Amino acid sequence: MSTLLHVTDLRTTYVTHGGGRPVAAVDGVSFDLERGECLGLVGESGSGKTTTCLSIVGLLPAAARIDGGSIEFDGQQLVGRSAEELSEIRGRQIAMILQDPMASLNPLLTIYDQVAEPAYYHRGARGTGLRRHVLDLLRAVRIPSPEVRMAEYPHQMSGGMRQRVVGAIALSAGPQLIIADEPTTNLDVTIQAQYLNLLKDLQRRTGVSLLFVTHNLGIVAHMCDRVAVMYAGQIVEQGPVRDLFQTPRHPYTQALLRSIPKLGSREPLYAIPGQPPDLAELPGGCAFHPRCPRALETCASEAPPETAIAARHLARCWLLNP
Amino acid sequence: MSGATPLLELRDVKKYFPAGGARMPWVAPRWVKAVDGVNLSIHAGETVGLVGESGCGKTTTTRLILRLERPTQGQVLFEGRDVFALKGRDLQRYRQSVQAVFQDPYSSLNPRMRIGDIIGEPLEAQGGLSRQTIKAKVGDALSLVGLRPANATRFPHEFSGGQRQRIAIARAIATSARLIVLDEPVSALDVSIRAQIMTLLEDLQRQLGVSFLFIGHDLATVIHISQRIAVMYLGNIVEEASADVLSATPMHPYTRALFAAALPPDPFEAPITAMVEGGVPTALAPPSGCHFHPRCPYAMARCSTEAPELLPVDGRAIACHLYSECLSVPSS
């Protein structure tokens, strides 16, 4: 396997209203993504998952900017590229699947038009070739009777079908990387299972890399090869999925895993005290220390460094640095 | 427990909504059968979980219990009395006894009211309580949900999602409610906050003896908090059992599909199996016979013509021809 995406010490800040201090939504994030691999990015709202993704594709809102670090994609540096260059890379090599399929589809265009667009612009597909390509994609995402459905509009489809269309659009230009930002949050559980299976299957067949953003650890356990857990703009722990679920080393990861109800277990849930911090008023030292059951004195004053625990398993915690 | 009169009982409750479009007298009306013959009872101090996907009738069921909708047929009984026949003081007492907490604490709290007024409003509606009493009760309710009574003067926007949900719960318990309908109360919250609210609800039940009807789509969450579970599909309860029995051996093919689609946070578990294909059909034209038959991997000829009844099998109730014919679990 070779590295497709190499993010080092990424910092993205938002300018706040009223000229306050800029807020670091992503604060020194580093990770790698191999070709054909699925990396899960987990965290609660405000932990910086989405900002990390938007930084990679260059779709940050006007109030945000990348302040430092590097994003290397397929050997090219993405930080500091012009909007035109990024738009070219984005369309051809990186695709995105967003949470709400209704908001990401154009209600005025047919399914055919929307699935055809990336292939038309980025692969130069035309005429019957383009038509065949669209049909293949709709079949790949298992839309029944694609010849009929491709002439329809988004409102004629159910939520699950719309999200499949979004998947077909993402694959249309033949990208190397798909970033999926909570793609199943709005779907029913049986539909979610179907969609996740489909994504996994497509990934195996096309060899595309997947950056999967979610707050659902169940999805990560089933979809991803590796996982990075974010808290207050930083990756606090990352590693192979099995290692991280079996031997979580960061107290936040441990607490998170103990706070989810599990089928067949009546054990009382562990409730993490307090709430995720406000990024504008982050506690000093380790951002998790006020909620951490095992906080040391150092934790309040100094931010912990990233420590290697095992092969590719890293965590930021003073407990691991005696 | 089964001997006593249940706190709340639904008896063959149906709710049909007229389908959209102009209603011409010469055109037969079309109905959406949102709830189509539901029997359910909730005992004092008990938590009953109601699971199902969107459009299965969970929310309509709660609206019927809250008297926000009138049933097309059937009865809702509270302590043995028909809720829709209540008048005057009795009706007021019912409204105080049955409260609700909704999914989104950002839209369920009026942004222009202070916390104290939000929690105090149901008490004021009760009438006859002095300002002092109301203030004291609001303070008590806030303490019970883990917030300081001094927060009564603040506005909802000053609180986080989790705290807002605590405020919504405080409003529900302020009138000494006997039953609280919890409609997806943790779905909109962050993962680390969900456990806090779940633990709070369990504590409140121990302290106050209140009953819960817990609506959810996440099986693990509903099973964790409930003693009994009812699984709904397209307006019907398809299986009802104690939480332990259901999680040990789900029997109805739809319940099994829900279990198969649940994603345990464990990478060593078997991969996701989408046991069923397709989505929930529209309630406007539900499939004939058993509504689940077009998606059911075990469907037989009989399933498409004859709707199965909810029948008791091995200490649970199940609506499936597989079990009404032979009382054994098919091997999967």
Structural class of chain A: alpha/beta
Query: CATH top level of the largest domain in chain A?
Result: Alpha Beta
CATH architecture of the largest domain in chain A: 3-Layer(aba) Sandwich
* Distance between the ends of chain A: 34 Å
- Quote the CATH topology of the largest domain in chain A: Rossmann fold
Count of individual helical segments of chain A:
12
Which chains make the largest contact? Answer: A-B, 46 and 48 residues
* CATH hierarchy: architecture of chain B: 3-Layer(aba) Sandwich
Major β-sheet profile of chain A: 8 strands, mixed
Describe the structure in your own words.
The complex is a heterodimer of chains A (322) and B (332). Chain A has 322 residues and is an alpha/beta fold. Chain A has two domains: 3-93 and 175-312, P-loop containing nucleotide triphosphate hydrolases (Rossmann fold); 99-174, no CATH class. Chain A contains twelve helices and twelve strands. Chain A has helices at residues 49-57, 83-92, 101-104, 111-122, 127-140, 146-149, 159-172, 189-206, 217-223, 241-246, 251-258, 297-301, and strands at residues 3-14, 23-34, 38-42, 64-73, 76-77, 94-97, 177-181, 209-214, 226-231, 234-240, 306-310, 313-316. Chain A has an eight-stranded mixed β-sheet, with helices on both faces. In chain A, β9 and β10 form a beta hairpin. The radius of gyration of chain A is 21 Å and the shape is globular. In chain A, 46% of the residues are buried. The mean pLDDT of chain A is 91. Chain B has 332 residues and is α/β, with parallel strands linked by helices. Chain B has one domain (8-18, 30-325): P-loop containing nucleotide triphosphate hydrolases (Rossmann fold, 3-Layer(aba) Sandwich), CATH 3.40.50. Chain B has ten helices and twelve strands. Chain B has helices spanning 58-65, 88-97, 115-126, 131-144, 161-174, 191-208, 219-225, 243-248, 253-261, 321-325, and strands at residues 8-18, 31-42, 47-51, 73-78, 81-82, 98-101, 179-183, 211-216, 228-233, 236-242, 311-313, 316-318. In chain B, the strands form two sheets. Chain B has an eight-stranded mixed β-sheet, sandwiched between helices. A four-stranded antiparallel β-sheet of chain B has the order 2-1-4-5, with helices on one face. In chain B, β9 (228-233) and β10 form a beta hairpin. In chain B, α3 (115-126) packs across α4 and α4 crosses α5. The longest helix of chain B has 18 residues, at 191-208. Chain B is globular. The chains are: A alpha/beta (322), B alpha/beta (332). At the A-B interface, α7, α8, α9, α10 and α11 of A face α6, α7, α8 and α9 of B.
